[in-house]
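ugh ok fine here u go
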Amino acid sequence: MEKTLLQSLSPRFVGWHDSGAVLHTDSRQSYGRRVVEHYEIEYIVFSRSGCIVTNGIPVQTIPQLVFLRSPGMEVEGIGVYRSLFVEFDLNDGADRLQALDRLTPVLFNGEELDLDEAFFLGLALPAQPELWQLLDWKAKLLRLLAVLLRQGGASPETAGQEGSAAVRRALRHIRRHYAEPITLEQLAGAAGYSSCYFCKLFKKVTQLTPLQYLVRYRLEQAKRRMLDSDEPLEAVMLEAGFHNYGYFWRAFREVYGLSPQAFRRQARQSPGQLTEPGRGIAESGSGCAGPWDLV
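structure:
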């Protein structure tokens, strides 16, 4: 069936979007929650503090990340970032390709795939394209699909719906128990997998290790309490699940670029003008305001 569909594969352009046209200025702003109607491939150009929530799983918008979305997915973009994405159908009948649907919503770093901003800018089409422009667009999109399928198939396992559901179960456990000690074994048990397999699955779906995600989640809770209350920082830290002030201070500064004291002070002096550098996951895995309530 898959090979039969490939024989009739003739991508149809639906739309091209640049989120920079309505660039946000606040990390809590949302681009709106919606249900995906066509296939979409999105490329992150830059990010100051952003997340894309796909089917309830928030993933930080790291520059050069490539996101794939299939029809029926629920998605919401939150925060300050710029992205380019193309909407398309596989053919005039809008058929589905299971090989694409099995891939995780977050794929790979565009640099590793030899894909950059110029490539995604080239996926835009004028309102009345010439024949050669349509053919060139189809060729580019087919190349992009081939790259994504090749790279996605290179992994020994794909997450799929079952894997994503397992990760969501782990995220719910974090949400309910983040103020308590949480072990890897507990999260793996909530997901229904062995610890080793769960770690690989969690990283594949979220681009973070379970520990990185837990720390970011706790930091988000601490940040919210700091902004919404006058509680001492030591109390905020404990309520968010941290028990070592030195570790909390270093982790907070690494993610938000300011110490907890400086962050709270700046927030009160200049609301909406907070400095949130949005560093890469591999280096510091910065957090994202807003979407954690969705897990």
